[in-house]
Amino acid sequence: MICLSGGLDSTLVAFLASKQFNNIDVVSAVLKDQQFGNEKSSTSYDFTQAKKIGKELKVNFNTIYIETNKILKDLPKILRAAQDWRDYNVHCAVLNYYIGEYISKNFNKNEYIVLTGDFMNEAFADYTSEFVEGNEYYKQPNFSQKVRQRFFLNGLDSSDREIGIFSSFGLSCIQPYSFVLDHYKLLTNDDLSEGEVKYNINGSLLPKLLLNKINKRKVRAQVGDSNGGILGYFIKQGITEDNLRKIFSKAFNINQKFLSDFIQIGVYKI
């Protein structure tokens, strides 16, 4: 089962998997439009691109419509499974939670392994800030690309946004890019500063027809539609990282001051 977002990273995983295995399933998640329902949700740009890619790969395409009214109720469980309160990782974890829930309800977990396209944004340090109504979210460090790469990769040490979530449903998760990170660490600052470096390297592994279907604007799975996706939902609900920290502290019965010392600059300190 491959998590397909419509971007290069997950598409490459899906393509290579389709060359090795038969009867591949992919899954794509989108927030359900509360006013217009699933039909409106299906017009999400990321979802549309993912569906085109799934069709091109001739794989079984599974759609998940996330009921937004469930998110707040499930949030403590999501924070516990992800072992995280930081907004970016929590927003990732929300998507993965409902993907994991869907797979566990509709497939035999002993017959499926979840594959994801995680780690490539860290390897290429291609994250950018997101702006919603003039406000900046996921603010990025102002370092050289090589330092940013090291910062992002080190930060993976304290993230359980995928494996922790899927494990909570009894699902095994493999992150294929984790096996080749050492190769990407060889990229120089000049390499990483080239705007198309990821597409020049990883994109060269895809057929041109498939590459042309990829959403080049795609970086974050959390911002997947015109309403801002998961990020937009949390903004509308007024749920900030401070709120998430409080919910996390309550879920684990620990004080908030401990959290400041527990993780620093993305790395465990205790």
Account of the 3D structure:
By secondary structure, the chain is mostly helical. The protein has one domain: Rossmann fold (3-Layer(aba) Sandwich). Helix content is 49%, strand content 12%. The protein contains 15 helices and nine strands. Strands 1-2-3 form a three-stranded parallel beta sheet, sandwiched between helices. Strands 4-7 form a two-stranded parallel ribbon. Helix 4 packs across helix 5 and helix 4 packs across helix 14. The radius of gyration is 18 Å and the shape is globular. The two termini are 35 Å apart. The model has no long low-confidence stretch (mean pLDDT 90).
Relevant terms:
three-stranded parallel sheet, mainly alpha, Rossmann fold, 270 residues
Tell me briefly what this model is.
By secondary structure, the protein is mainly alpha-helical. Helices cover 49% and strands 12% of the residues.
Largest sheet, in brief, is:
3 strands, parallel
The CATH topology name reads Rossmann fold
Counting DSSP H or I runs of 4 or more residues, the number of helices is 15
- Which stretches are poorly predicted, pLDDT < 50 over at least 5 residues? none
Total beta strands: 9
Going by CATH, what is the homologous superfamily? Answer: HUPs
Distance between the termini: 35 Å
SSE inventory with pairings:
Blueprint lengths: L1 E2 L4 H13 L4 E7 L6 H4 L3 H13 L2 E7 L1 H15 L4 H20 L6 E3 L4 H5 L5 E3 L2 E3 L7 H11 L7 H5 L4 E3 L6 H4 L4 H5 L3 H5 L6 H4 L17 H9 L3 H12 L3 H7 E2 L2 E2 L2
Parallel strand pairs: 1-2, 2-3, 4-7
Antiparallel strand pairs: 5-6, 8-9
